[in-house]
Amino acid sequence: MEKLRTVRGVHDLLPQELYKHQQVINAGLKISDKYNYSQVETPIFEFAEVFTKPLGNSSDIVTKENYIFKDRSQDELMLRPEGTSGVVRAFLNAGLVQDIPQRFSYYGPMFRYERPQKGRLRQFKQLGVECLGLSSWMADIEVISLGHDFLEQLGIIENINVNINTLGDIASRKKYRDVLVNYLNDFQYKLSKDSLKRLSINPLRILDSKNVEDQKIIKNAPSILEYLNLESRTRFENICKGLDHLNIKYNIDKNLVRGLDYYCHTAFEFTTNELGSQGTVLAGGRYDGLSKMLGGSDIPGVGWAAGVERLALMIKSEFTNKIDVVLIGQSENFNYLLLPIMKKLIQNGIKSEIIYTGNLSKKFKRANKIKASYAIILGEEEVSKQVFKFKDLKSGIEKLINLKQAIKIMTK
Ligand code: ATP
Ligand code: MG
Predict the structure, then answer these.
(1) Domains, the chain, ranges and CATH?
(2) Is the distance from the beta carbon of residue 55 to the nearest atom of ligand 1 less than 6 Å?
(3) What are phi and psi of 15, to 5 degrees?
(4) Could you tell me the distance, in angstroms and rounded to a whole number, from the CA of residue 82 to the centre of ligand 1?
(5) How far, in Å, from the CA of 36 to the mean position of ligand 1?
(6) Can you tell me whether residue 67 is helix, strand or coil?
């Protein structure tokens, strides 16, 4: 069996776990629809460029986490590591630039070659939303509100912190970048290897470092909030005001940056203390530069993605498979006659199973095991009278009735 196990960081989903994922996904799609976000699906693999261009050469996803391969026609392809680039590409390809704003939701598997641990897999699912074509800060508030409602619907909002920051516009970020590099230069000999590399390519990313030594240095770093120009600051204040109007509590985290190059202005993360170190369950921000990086026109966008597995670990609902009725023949000769009965039951929305084999006591054992509510038992005598024995498996009471009567009882 050794060869038949799954690849590291990739899991089978059996009914219990899949059920929780579906609860998360259904809640997400439903609330997104109410906010007028329509579901889309993009391919699981794309030309690698779709991801490498916008994510930038300094992102972890591009440098070390990607699943990249050449197919038989030597095209360089990548299993998608995230959803936004694909959705924006699809939007551009479909010529929807003429028809903005567009609001999309999606969910599906993503792939990243990471070190597998609790809440960190190599194949995992994200559910996300993208609001395209609106530069108004109202759109930022809208997507944060949608994310908040989503987690409220899942019944976990009490255990969630909303953290928000701004990366400013290009001018503000440039000014801040210089100040930050200046500050970090003094600590060069103390920074982690990764951060040292980023110092010249993408210093803002250092703020996101999980390295403990780095974090000590970052704690006292200058804050971007002090280097925002008027437009960027006003935008950020307006967003905070909007969240106040919605009674959404948030912390301003001056060191919150997003890992990808295409973000600007608003960045936010919803985190929890319940999941150990993998505590970010939903993250997003504004990505006005992305569309242009993909070769399209300049279309602003804002959105988020949530980790389905991490949210599934937080929800309480449990899978229960309750079957309404089992169909049992006195002997195997009656199995054929049970087929049309089962068909009728199913047409009436009644969950049914024919128990084909074993003696009667074995069949009832199975009925108990799968927690069936009723049993239909068919024998010689019943067939000739066009009825069957109908047994309530809880009370043990049984009576002779016909199919119509049985359906009536079970659909009551
Ligand atoms: P992290 O800091 O945890 O690595 P990230 O910044 O790489 O997160 P995003 O790219 O923003 O994550 O993805 C959004 C969400 O998707 C995350 O907040 C998380 O819930 C989930 N996610 C990301 N990577 C993984 C993974 N490898 N396994 C499971 N869930 C993940
Ligand atoms: Mg990551």
Answers:
(1) 15-169+229-314 (3.30.930.10), 325-410 (3.40.50.800)
(2) no
(3) -50, -45
(4) 9
(5) 25
(6) coil
Closest atom, ligand 1, to C-alpha of 128: 14
Residues 409 and 393: their CA atoms lie apart, in Å, by: 14
Separation CA 115–CA 117 (nearest Å): 7
Q: What is the reported pTM? A: 0.93
Q: Which residues pair with 282 in a beta bridge?
A: 270, 306
Structural tokens at position 325: 């009725």
The response to whether residue 120 sits with its C-beta less than 6 Å from ligand 1 reads: yes
CA 58, 64, 65, 69 dihedral sign is positive
CA of 344 to the centre of ligand 2 (A): 51
Q: How far is the CA of 104 from the centre of ligand 1 (A)?
A: 20
Decide: 160 in ligand 1 pocket, CB within 6 A: no
> What DSSP designation does 120 have?
B
What are the two backbone dihedrals, phi and then psi, of residue 152, each rounded to the nearest 5 degrees? -70, -45
Report whether 262 contacts 202 (CB < 8 A). Answer: no
pLDDT in tens, 230-289: 999 999 999 999 999 999 999 999 989 876 667 899 999 999 999 988 899 999 999 998
Which ligand has the minimum distance to the alpha carbon of residue 259? 1
